[in-house]
Amino acid sequence: MRRMTARPANAHQARLLRLLRDGGPNSRAQLGDQIDLSRSKLAVEVERLLETGLVVADGLAASRGGRRSHNIRLAPALRFLGVDIGATSIDVAVTNAELEVLGHINQPMDVREGPVAVFEQVLSMAAKLRASGLAEGFDGAGIGVPGPVRFPEGVPVAPPIMPGWDGFPVREALSQELGCPVMVDNDVNLMAMGEQHAGVARSVGDFLCVKIGTGIGCGIVVGGEVHRGTTGSAGDIGHIQAVPDGRPCACGNRGCLEAHFSGAALARDAVEAAQQGLSAELAARLETNGALSAVDVAAAAAAGDATALDLIREGGNRTGQVIAGLVSFFNPGLVVIGGGVTGLGHTLLAAIRTQVYRQSLPLATGNLPIVLGELGPTAGVIGAARLISDHLFSPA
Amino acid sequence: MRRMTARPANAHQARLLRLLRDGGPNSRAQLGDQIDLSRSKLAVEVERLLETGLVVADGLAASRGGRRSHNIRLAPALRFLGVDIGATSIDVAVTNAELEVLGHINQPMDVREGPVAVFEQVLSMAAKLRASGLAEGFDGAGIGVPGPVRFPEGVPVAPPIMPGWDGFPVREALSQELGCPVMVDNDVNLMAMGEQHAGVARSVGDFLCVKIGTGIGCGIVVGGEVHRGTTGSAGDIGHIQAVPDGRPCACGNRGCLEAHFSGAALARDAVEAAQQGLSAELAARLETNGALSAVDVAAAAAAGDATALDLIREGGNRTGQVIAGLVSFFNPGLVVIGGGVTGLGHTLLAAIRTQVYRQSLPLATGNLPIVLGELGPTAGVIGAARLISDHLFSPA
DNA sequence: CCTGCTTTGTCCTGTCAGTGGAAAAAGTTG
DNA sequence: CAACTTTTTCCACTGACAGGACAAAGCAGG
User: Fold this and answer.
1) Based on the number of CB atoms within 10 Å of its own CB, is A345 exposed (0-12), middle (13-18) or buried (19 or more)?
2) Distance CA B99, CA B102 (A)
3) What is the residue-averaged pLDDT of chain B?
4) Is CATH 3.40.250.10 what the domain over B11-74 is classified as, yes or no?
5) Which nucleotide is nearest to A70 (CA to C1')?
6) How close B102 gets to chain A, by Cα (Å)?
7) d(CA A89, CA A95)
8) Interface with chain B: mutation pick from A151, A240, A367, highest number of B CBs within 10 Å
9) Residues 6 or more apart from A102 whose CB is under 8 A from it?
10) Which phi and psi (to 5°) does residue B349 adopt?
């Protein structure tokens, strides 16, 4: 099937498409209230959008006291693909043009197996979604990778945890395979965009989104836009020193935040505690599974295990300390905590909050919510869909 | 004398004014090369600007191989006032419309004497500059204060080191007194704008500007724009924890960067070292002056005093450690070090560089210059002039 | 069902910003 | 002085857009 080739011809059309994306089906009259255009001009632009097929008529709206207005909506057949490649698993989802998730699958996979193997997996997952009747094809795809990206080209650069990906033309290759436009970004940035679009960060202009998974990263949103930095490595807070002369880190330094708290560090600490006989709960789980992960620690903590709680608390303290510094520096309006370890829940959040509220100045923390992400694993794929839709819904 | 009342009527005119401000006198033809407008349209807008008096004819340009072009320039009588209120001194300068400093005076004054006393001083300094024939009046003024500012209103909020200023309507009051538009900002932000306009940060989109004076602050520039944060306290890095369980700080916490290194901390450490007999050089200076400041430490270091050098080095290490974190987080294209302690020169810079290059990831530091500010004490006043000119040279 | 009011959609004209070509004006080069 | 450039002005043409007039559609109340 031929997919969308049309693009908005001007800024007004782009604006209208985004209004329809973010606000769902809408009447012409309501659109007129939200956009600064005369009725005549609006009618012309809507007419042109209808001609392109990007937008379709959608029945009559409820009356607002007079003649009823005709609703319009984004073409219901439009489909975006959102891909979130994590360190140890892959999420793929299909959305409609309003970025609602229609189907979502998750598969474990080690990113270190390299781009070729991962791509194969991603494509087969996309094919599976297509086969299930959710999409006949994709009008665009967004993809997130766990490392820095040279954004304009869509190419990973010097990614520490994914050797073999350096310089791999992700955007080009995926675009080729799927036959549609593709945008690539860091997975943390996509999570931030997801929470901004559909999660807790709606209507916040400046915020931080801290993702604690296998590693730790931070999405930075300034004035509604993601800040990627000069080389695309902004938000790489995992290697900020949290403990002077602390544990050795894979990066060669000592005391990096990531070495002291992250999915990987937490798992290692848990195994150690189990082996030293500090926690019967963890030891039992280690016995059963042969390994431990953040999920086990969360379960043990939920069961009241003191060691597990301590691990979480200490990690939260470390993380909170680093975040406190970032809050002083950046003065965000919101801090979102997300990623694999959100399962640790309130214990973690409380530890982080304590540190931030204690260490940052009152002016910066006075009205600063620190909350868990609302979308969990869908944040990344929604962010990915948002990324490509922002691209497509902008003047050609 | 009546001053400039005219403002650019549209974005084109604003654009032209900024080109003339940043590039100096220019021919119509050259302007045409820099702006995306047809010759006819350009001629119309220039004509209108000439009518308003904001811009005047300025003789003939050199030939580029054909008919010579008529030069135009910003009205030579335009004057901006730049005010930089530091913790312990005040800088006031007059600039022309191209933001060249025509006159600059500096007076010691403790900001804690309160807004009324400080204002009196500022106005008398401005009057002095006017009396010396540099200006008949001011077309706009920018002012920087050493604390957070609610930017749109131009009002300091909860400034830790300047009690009595909280909520004082700086913008309103100064505008009233001077009879011209006024904009207020944090002094560190103005320093960043100054270095961006006329210093080392020309042509860099994302950079950090660390000012080490009585306290420590950091100007953050994202995409050419200053980031002020949700409550105007962005860049307040003086109270980031640099030393766990370190020295007590005025803010109530322990180990704040500012408590370990800043103009004030350095002076205190120097006195202590002198009294403990660790440094003959510093002791002698303490004897002579009755007090020590960063300048004394710089002089002692220049004379080869080991203790002074150690103080600087250790401070640089602490600062570098914090900056390393910020570099990982923000991924700037440049880091500028400025403020009173730039006199400490290369020793300080070397220590900072060592820490940053060691602790941040290669991708972020690979092509990251860390340099001293170029403008010294004029950075702030130039930034102040730039602030108000940006405001005035924007569509009404 | 009919009347008056409101909202929505369409049509049309006037205005204004802006482009691009033509030609005049002013210089340069040989 | 002739041929060629560059700059500037002039002018007609285009397209974007606003806003008014009017028709269409719906509501409320008699």
Assistant:
1) middle
2) 9
3) 92
4) no
5) C8
6) 35
7) 20
8) A240
9) A79, A93, A94, A95, A96, A134, A135
10) -60, -40
Q: Average pLDDT in the B116-123 region?
A: 96
Protein contacts on strand D: list nucleotides below 7 Å from a Cβ: 4-12, 16-21, 24-27
pLDDT at residue A381 greater than cutoff 80: yes
Residue-wise pLDDT for A267-307, tens only, equals: 888 888 888 888 888 888 888 888 888 888 888 888 888 88
HEC string of B233-279 equals CCCCHHHCECCCCCCECCCCCECEHHHHCCHHHHHHHHHHHHHCCCC
CA distance B202 to B193: 10
Q: Write out pLDDT tens, residues B199-249.
A: 999 999 999 999 998 889 999 999 999 999 999 999 999 999 999 888 998
Q: Is the pLDDT of residue A5 over 80?
A: no
Residue of chain B whose Cα is closest to the Cα of A256 = B359
User: What token pair was written down for B333?
Assistant: 């294209």
User: How confident is the model over B239-292, as pLDDT tens digits?
Assistant: 999 998 889 988 888 999 999 998 888 888 888 888 887 887 888 888 888 888
Give pLDDT, residue A2: 53
Which pLDDT score, from 0 to 100, does residue B4 have? 65
Q: Is the CB of A40 under 7 A from strand C?
A: yes
User: Distance (Å, rounded) from C-alpha B33 to C-alpha A4?
Assistant: 38
Residue of A114, A89, A91 lying closest to A263 (CA atoms): A89
Whether A80-196+378-392 and A202-372 share one fold: the answer is: yes
- Please state which CATH number belongs to domain B80-196+378-392: 3.30.420.40
Topology, domain B202-372: Nucleotidyltransferase; domain 5 (3.30.420)
Distance from CA of B245 to the nearest CA of A (A): 12
Domain boundaries, chain B: 11-74, 80-196+378-392, 202-372
Alpha-carbon gap, residue A65 to A236, rounded angstroms:
54
What is the per-residue pLDDT for A285? Answer: 85
Residue A198 near residue A323 (C-beta atoms within 8 A) = no
User: Smallest Cβ distance to A230: which of B253, B332, B360?
Assistant: B332
H or E stretch covering B105: strand B101-108
Sequence-distant contacts of B308-315: CB under 8 A, at least 24 apart: B308/B270, B308/B279, B308/B281, B308/B282, B309/B347, B311/B266, B311/B269, B311/B270, B311/B273, B312/B266, B312/B344, B312/B347, B312/B348, B312/B351, B313/B347, B313/B351, B314/B261, B314/B351, B315/B260, B315/B261, B315/B265, B315/B266, B315/B348, B315/B351
Question: CB of B137 within 8 A of CB of B1?
Answer: yes
Residue whose structure tokens are 């869509």: A154
The secondary structure of B110-174 as a DSSP string is -GGG-HHHHHHHHHHHHHHHHHTTS-SS-SEEEEEESS-EETTTTEE-S-TT-TT-TT--HHHHH
Given a contact cutoff of 8 angstroms between Cβ atoms, the answer to whether A370 and A353 are in contact is: yes
In the predicted model, what is the mean pLDDT of residues B326-331?
98
Tokens of residue B380, six digits? 């702030």
**pLDDT score recorded for residue B18:** 95
Q: Which residues contact B65 (CB under 8 A, 6 or more apart)?
A: none
Is pTM, for the whole model, over 0.70?
yes
Structure tokens at A242: 């949290």
Token couple for B244: 């766990």
In chain A, % of residues over pLDDT 90: 75
Name which of B236, B321, B366 is nearest A364 (Cβ-Cβ).
Answer: B236
pLDDT in the model for residue B2: 53
| Per-residue three-class SS string for A246-285 | CCECCCCCECEHHHHCCHHHHHHHHHHHHHCCCCHHHHHH
Name the phi and psi angles at A84, rounded to 5.
-125, 105
pLDDT at B286: 86
Q: What's the pLDDT score for residue B66?
A: 81
